[in-house]
Specification:
This protein has 339 residues and is an alpha/beta fold. It has a single domain (4-27, 61-336), classed as 3-Layer(aba) Sandwich (UDP-N-acetylmuramoyl-L-alanine:D-glutamate ligase). It has helices spanning 6-16, 61-70, 85-95, 140-156, 172-185, 211-218, 225-239, 279-292, 297-311, 322-331; strands at residues 4-5, 20-25, 27-40, 47-60, 74-82, 99-109, 116-122, 125-132, 159-163, 188-192, 206-207, 243-247, 253-257, 262-266, 335-336. The strands form three sheets. A nine-stranded mixed β-sheet has the order 6-5-2-9-10-11-12-13-14, with helices on both faces. The chain has a four-stranded mixed β-sheet with strand order 4-3-7-8. Strand 3 (27-40) and strand 4 form a beta hairpin. Helix 2 (61-70) crosses helix 8, helix 8 (279-292) runs antiparallel to helix 9 (297-311) and helix 9 packs across helix 10. The longest helix has 17 residues, at 140-156. It is globular, with a radius of gyration of 20 Å. Bound molecules: adenosine-5'-triphosphate and magnesium ion. Residues 210, 247-250, 252-253, 268, 270, 273, 276-281, 283, 305, 308-309, 312 line the site of adenosine-5'-triphosphate. GO terms for molecular function: heptose 7-phosphate kinase activity; heptose-1-phosphate adenylyltransferase activity; phosphotransferase activity, alcohol group as acceptor.
């Protein structure tokens, strides 16, 4: 069984606070209006929710930033917002999540709204969700603006995460430009892909789709270990990454290292599952941060699987901390405490 040396874990923890990880992708504001229902509306046969509490959190690529902040990593963020209140909220919340003002590079669209998903919750039940979004790809002019500063920000970062929610920020040409710049600067790129863009992500470090997404991209159903293995090989032949990771929900995850042609199947460590929302964001964030701070592919994958096991035991799009990771590694027998 793979174990992680306690000294390596502590060295990696120390390194986390020194690096910056660049997150590029679709920013979303998640909003929750929480209240109770006392009566049915006289206007239509619908409940009237009396709102007592309101909450706004980071969604989409913003959830990756929140995960970075929680493990003590500073983020550099590229994304798009609208010229509206939700955009102001996103900006404010990102700035309170380990992103410095000069590292928050937001394109403010004059025509598009900030992507906002509002959940109305009464007595712990979601009554409905209200979405505000216009999915429009970046314009050439917007891409040109992004590329003016991107090279410098890539230089300042240790790794780049592409968090693709298919909302228009990651266009094929931007994807290509980012990967070329990162390859030139020798910075690793990790990708949480959308099926429609799957094979555009060539020459990256790793891609982390779930088994449904990988299956859709290949037009196959992926269930058994051997089906997952041949999918990893097939995708790797087409995009030539250093490694390929497929997350498999309650089955944990599988990783393929292309150079050595080896597979690791890591079972989930979650004991209780409350909410799997955002587990994929936790996987890509912890994996990227730990590999960029000195761990091997295998070790970083193990840490990311353990981290996902922790977050699925919490409610909402949750995050993990360094002490939680160390405790879980110890409890699960993955920590080698010998000096
Ligand atoms: N039902 C579950 N039981 C146990 N562990 C789980 C479960 N769902 C997810 N996990 C853990 O979380 C990791 C990522 O989950 P999953 O494969 O569902 O990713 P995802 O579908 O991309 O998630 P997201 O909804 O955030 O996009 C898994 O590798 C596993 O470790
Ligand atoms: Mg996912």
């Amino acid at each position: 069984m793979l174990k992680i040396k306690k000294s390596l874990l502590h060295q990696t923890f120390a390194k986390l606070s020194q690096i910056k990880v660049l997150v590029i992708g679709d920013l979303i504001l998640d909003e929750y209006l929480i209240g109770s229902v006392e009566r049915i509306s006289p206007e239509a046969p619908v409940p009237v929710v009396w709102v007592r509490n309101e909450k706004q959190t980071l969604g989409g690529s913003g959830n990756v930033v929140q995960n970075l902040s929680s493990i003590g990593v500073n983020g550099i963020v590229y994304g798009r917002i609208g010229n509206d209140k939700a955009g102001e909220s996103l900006e404010r919340i990102l700035l309170s999540n380990s992103v410095a003002k000069e590292d928050l590079v937001l394109l403010k669209s004059k025509t598009l709204p900030t992507i906002l998903k509002t959940r109305i919750i009464a007595s712990h039940q979601q009554v409905c969700r209200v979405d505000r979004e216009e999915i429009v790809p970046l314009t050439e002019a917007e891409e040109a603006t992004i590329l003016e500063t991107l090279k410098q920000k890539i230089k300042e970062s240790s790794a780049v995460i592409l968090s693709d929610y298919d909302k228009g920020y990651l266009t094929p040409s931007l994807i290509q430009s980012v990967i070329s710049l990162c390859n030139a600067e020798e910075k690793i790129v990790t990708v949480d892909p959308q099926v429609s863009h799957f094979f555009l992500y060539k020459n990256i470090h790793i891609m982390t789709p779930n088994h449904h997404e990988a299956g859709k991209a290949l037009g196959k159903k992926l269930a058994s270990d051997s089906e997952i293995e041949s999918a990893c090989r097939e995708i790797s032949e087409r995009i030539t990454p250093d490694a390929m990771m497929i997350t498999r929900g309650e089955k944990g995850m599988s990783i393929y290292e292309r150079k050595t042609n080896t597979f690791y199947h890591i079972p989930t460590v979650a004991k209780e599952v409350f909410d799997v929302t955002g587990a994929g964001d936790t996987v890509i964030t912890t994996y990227t941060a730990f590999v960029a701070s000195g761990m091997s592919i295998k070790e970083a994958a193990l840490v990311s699987n353990v981290s996902a096991g922790i977050v699925v035991g919490k409610l909402g799009a949750a995050t993990v901390t360094q002490p939680e990771i160390e405790d879980a590694l110890r409890t699960l027998g993955y920590l080698d405490e010998a000096v």
